[in-house]
Amino acid sequence: NAGVMQNPRHLVRRRGQEARLRCSPMKGHSHVYWYRQLPEEGLKFMVYLQKENIIDESGMPKERFSAEFPKEGPSILRIQQVVRGDSAAYFCASSPIRDTEAFFGQGTRLTVV
Amino acid sequence: QKEVEQNSGPLSVPEGAIASLNCTYSDRVSQSFFWYRQYSGKSPELIMSIYSNGDKEDGRFTAQLNKASQYVSLLIRDSQPSDSATYLCAVIIGSGGSNYKLTFGKGTLLTVNP
After folding, report:
1. Distance set, CA A55 to CA A20, A67, B23, B101 (Å)
2. How far is CA A9 from the centre of its chain?
3. Is the pLDDT of residue A97 over 90?
4. What DSSP state is assigned to residue A3?
5. Which residue of B6, B43, B46 is the best one to mutate when testing the A interface, meaning the one whose CB has the most A CBs within 10 A?
6. Do A45 and B45 make contact, defined as CB atoms within 8 angstroms?
7. φ, ψ for residue A84, nearest 5 deg
8. Chain A CB contacts of B42 below 8 Å
9. Nearest-CA residue of chain B relative to A48?
10. Which of B31, B43, B107 is the closest to A107 by Cβ?
11. Taking CB atoms and an 8 Å cutoff, what residues of chain A touch B46?
């Protein structure tokens, strides 16, 4: 049973480009969280999604960032017009239902040059 | 008050000792609590979950929950150098409400010295 899969593992983008990060949850999981982590810092909540619904996006910056979790396919975190400050590790985690354990993918390390 | 707070550390213990990690949370209605371990450069790994007041043991790990005090802790018995990592406390905040998120503390760096 495959774990949470994130791709790409490493992504380099020039300032102004778009970054698209993908997260395939564990089989049977319909809930996804996205987090951002800067070096030596904690995990910052960004968004919580269920299939086809955004449940809580209180941690998402108001501009340039968006997330979706379609009925079919992976969850996508999209960052438009990236800036150097977007450089970080982005993790997703999935869980089968609310209020239960969430399991993390290996993360995408985004570097903006 | 921060939603999830951990003792800042770092915490250093000798091999074989008990490591004690603490966490407090702000949301009185939270029902789900977790401890994760994160090695440097890696993703967080779930090590314990606890939902009811009291103790829950799994091998060398014991999680303790006190909802009245809004406090959760993790004890690691017979600490090993391989336990050296950052330990993250996580709480589901806003359960049942419109805002709902799995929220993490900043973590406590544990070093176990051989």
Report:
1. 20, 11, 26, 9
2. 12
3. no
4. -
5. B43
6. no
7. -55, -35
8. 106
9. B101
10. B43
11. 101-104
Identify the pLDDT of residue B97: 60
What region, left, alpha or beta, does residue A107 occupy, with left being phi > 0 and alpha being psi -120 to 50 degrees? left
Instruction: For residue B41, give Cα distances in angstroms to A23, A38, A90.
Output: 19, 11, 12
Q: In the block, which residue shows the tokens 């004890």?
A: B75
- Tokens representing B17 are 């000792």
What 3-state class would DSSP assign to A84? helix
Q: E strands within chain A?
A: 5-7, 10-13, 19-24, 31-37, 43-50, 53-56, 65-68, 75-79, 88-95, 103-104, 108-112
Contacts of B7 in chain A (CB under 8 A): none
- Residues A10-26 pLDDT 10s: 999 999 999 999 999 99
Tokens of B103: 């929220």
Label residue A72 by pLDDT band (50, 70, 90).
very high
pLDDT along chain B (114 residues), means of 10: 85 97 92 95 96 96 96 98 97 72 94 96
**Digit-coded pLDDT (tens) for A28-64:** 999 999 999 998 788 999 999 999 999 999 999 999 9
Are B105 and B14 within 8 A, CB to CB?
A: no
